[in-house]
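Appendix B.2, paired examples.
Example (i):
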Amino acid sequence: MIVDNQIRSFSARLVCWQKQAGRHDLPWQVRDPYRVWLSEIMLQQTQVATVLDYYPRFLQTFPQVGALAEADEDAVLALWQGLGYYSRARNLHKAARQVMNEFGGVFPQQRTQLETLCGVGRSTAAAIAAFCFDARESILDGNVKRVLCRVFALDGDPSNKAFTDKLWTLAEQLLPENNIDMPAYTQGLMDLGATVCRRSKPLCDICPQAMSCLARAQHKQDELPRKKSAVPVKVLPLFWLVLHNSEGAVWLQKRPNKGIWGGLWCVPCFDSFQATLIAAAEWELVAADLSEDAEISHRLTHRQLLITPFRAQVILPRPNIPEQQGCWVLPQALADYGLPQPLKAYLQQQGQLF
């Protein structure tokens, strides 16, 4: 049972702990909403260590929201290459244009307005508002849910909307009274979930909430929050048609925005060998012209891709393939195209990408 004094003391302990023991050297710990927003989008379903590599390179190319808005989508996807979940990059680009066109190039300060930006949900909008404008807004990402479920011994299905609404209500009750404490409080929630109240082997002995943590008192740290049901991994066979011309260029096509590798550039990709042969015939190639390379195994979140590449040399002049279906790209220009990570690795192995 949650009592008032437990709620009142939660934020004070957290703010004090964050100032003394929290993280203070992350490059996005600034008041610039563009930089905070960029980090929040990158950190969705991505480890801090990975983002620390991508974040400065992205800012070097797009130091301000206007530069990002004016960029070509392919340039944005090329920089995002390897981070995965490419819809984030496309939404980032769209949101930058929203900021320029709808808000005069200035990020709005209200959470509800921030939520109108593509790819920005309630928790992300709240984080931007809290960090940059001291707004009393609550965040609720996976780490925060874990902290709340343990400290207050809340057991429920994480996929259940009613239970999630209950967590949102609690998160709002826990906010510190003073707006000036919001950046430290919000960062403290993130730090606590990432470094102390970890998914496994939580460091309860150094937790600022240890004395009031109900899960610790009940020895339920390993039980809470309730584990999500495991999603079965689907094995998906794919076939690549890797075409080279006499100049060493590779034929690339832009993937649809929806589906695997949405919006990236890839070699022609098929779900069966028969479909690969049909496509090869459009280039006046037969099965004997195709050289099969070793199978590539690549794991996505809930899918295991088994990719079989088939290489072939196309003799110019090329057949009558409409230009809008793809383009020839020389090895030295491949870095300008956003490629799926397994294709990038394959081309590097083939000596096609440097």
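Example (ii):
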Amino acid sequence: MPNFTYSVHPDITLAETLPAEFYRNPRVFDAMQEKLFPRSWQWIETGENLNQAGSVYPFQFLPGFVNEPLFLSKTETGEVQCFSNVCTHRGNILVHNPGQYKKLTCNYHGRRFDLQGQMEFMPEFKEAQGFPRACDHLTEVPCQTWAQFPFVSLDPGFDFKPVLEVMQERIGFMPLPQFRYAPELSRDYLVNAHWALYCDNYLEGFHIPFVHAGLNQVLDYGAYYSELFDYCNLQVGIADSGTECFDLPAGHIDYGKRIAAYYFWVFPNMMFNFYPWGLSVNIVKPLSIKQCKVRFILYVYDESKLDQGAGADLDKVEREDEFVVENVQKGLQSRFYQTGRFSPKREACVHHFHQLLANNLNS
């Protein structure tokens, strides 16, 4: 796998963006598939399939891109674990459908595992010497949960606990376990642009007055601000007068402020948007160097506030973002555009993202 050398100056007042070549080079895109995303943490959308002990949920880690077959299982104590979903005998997919299981038996040759990934039985293997070995058990994959939400990494490149702590500090007052998964409101968007361009756009409120007229009416653009952390950042939307905002408890870090939305981004491709009505999780999934799929997963807490404030009409806001991002994708093919500069006041989160991309690809 080739190494790349990208440099993003740590001082945003001097820094330039990643070059257009970053978004156009197929070798860079392939390198991210091998070096970046397997080391990332990814939200796993289980819906209501992992509510009880004995629940097993098979899935692909970033389907269409990384394609690693895995499954989640919930123990009697409520712990969620993740394992390879490949039988250790001949590589058959082990679990095909979510459901309640006591044991997992491969439908190819009958190898049986418990829900903790331990091989228990294999027919016609009495004569095999030195069997079973440690590698005959299923490989456990790192998994962390926050409230009802599981996150998985194939080979973690960073500690995920501080990321969860950052989000918990801001929205821990909300009853996350009570949030209702809303499949009727969740949907996919196919965006004809490089996945990182979609993240670039998300990571700055600079474009709001120019692109989102409706959103601009409910946010105080002058008061909009951001905060940076190691592998995540936060944009805080301040409500305009009369706009729905959070009822923050006394002692909260933002108590006294009219917060309309908390926009959390987690490196490299996850967004967690908290509104007074609940949560919209946005996962940006690379498909090709010129296309990505954005999954909107909604969890509702207070349905009476769904059509109010910064969290209203998310589909309209998304379509407006798509129009801009897809035009940037076209513009980056120009021979005349090479790189740009950052607004020190408005694009700190984009600068943060570009630094992380450069550092991870250069390593």
